[in-house]
Amino acid sequence: MEIQTATNGTTITVYLTGELDHHGAAPLREQVDRLISARRPKRLVLDFGGVSFMDSSGIGFVMGRYKRITAQGGVLRVQSATPRMERVMRLAGLERLPIWND
Amino acid sequence: MKSMNEMRLVCSSRSANEGFARSAVAAFVAQLDPAVDELADLRTAVSEAVTNCIVHAYADRIGDIFIQVQLFENGRVMVKVRDRGCGIPDVKKAMEPLFTTGGEDRSGLGFSVMESFMDTMKVRSTVGKGTTVTMEKYIRRRRRDDGL
Question: What's the predicted TM-score (pTM) here?
Fold first, then answer.
C-alpha cells in the first residue's frame, strides 16, 4: 500500500490507498510510525478515501497509530471512511474514541 | 440438503494470498447474484478466517489453508476455512472480542467480525492438529422484476 502525505503546519494527513488487510497494514505501519516519530505531528489525519477494503487488521492499524500519537501528546483523526468501513470500525468501539472529524 | 455447486481451494499461508482468497470466494458466490453488501460481508469474513490461519495457526511456518465453499438452492452459502496449524487451546476465550495472543496492533476482533457479518459461525479446534471455521450466510433471493 502506497501512502501520500500532506503537511499543513503541525498536521500531517496520510492518504491511504489499496487494501487495509493484514498484508497491506504491515508496510504501512512502518511508514506511518516513522513519520510519527520523525516529524512528531500534533495532529495525524488518516484519510480512508482511497481504501478499497478493510477488515479487523485495519482496525488494529488505526488503534496502534492512535496509541502512538496520543502517547506523543498528539491527536488522531479518521476521515473519508465509507459507511461500510465505519461499520467495521464500530465493532471495535472506535466510535467512542475522539478520532472522528465533525 | 445436497449442494448445487461447490469449490475447494488450497493456498499457502502467505499474507499475499489474503486478497486472492477473498476474491476467489467472492467470484464463486457471484453466481447467486448476491447484493453488493452481501458479497462485501463474505469477503470480510473470509479475510478474517484466512488471516487467523496466517497469523496464528501457522505463526512460525508456512502451511496450507483449505477453503471450501458450498452453494445451496435456498441461497445458503457455506464457507469452511481449515488449517493444520497449532490449534486453539481455549476456543471460548479466543472468541472473546478484543482477546488476542497476537501482540501489538492485533485487534482481537477477527471472530467478532466473522460473527457479525455471517449468519452462523462455528469453530472446531484441536491443539497440535488444526482448526476449522465453518460459516454460513443466506443470500437474499432477488425477485426477477427487481430491475437491474
Answer: 0.92
